Each structure stands twice: as structure tokens, then as C-alpha cells.
Amino acid sequence: MPVYWGDYSQIEATLILINAAMARSERYDYLVLLSGSDHPVRTAAQLEAHFVEYQGSEFINMVRVPSEAASKPLSRLTEIQISARA
Length: 86
What we know:
mainly alpha
């Protein structure tokens, strides 16, 4: 499906992928979502070893908005971002 930055299509595509993973007979401890600007800095084996070492841990952080230090301006919550569709 076409996915556009800042658009609900990102959420929709993510939910489709999560549902597809959960429908499989294999069971997963973690689902890892990498977007277009996310590039692993470790090998697949290193990442797997990390998840084994920290089994049961969550890897989600929160940042209070607004936060200049985290480049999270209040406009992320108060302004609608319209993306051009091809």
C-alpha cells in the first residue's frame, strides 16, 4: 500500500504488518519497525543477541513535548501536516 510521511497510512501499514506477524504460527517476542531513515548499526546476529540479553524489556522511550533538546516542537501536536500524494 502507498505510505506517506505523517499520514494515517503509516499507522495503517504498521497495523497490517503487526496483524500479519501475529497471525503466523511462529511466536515472536519482539517486532521491530524500521522506517526509511532507520538503519541498523549492528549485524542481525548482534541485534538478536541484544534481544536475548534483554529479554522481557521494552525499548520504547517517551519525550515530553515540547522539547528543543529532542527536536520535538509543540507544532507536532498543534499543526496538521498535509503530505502531497503522487
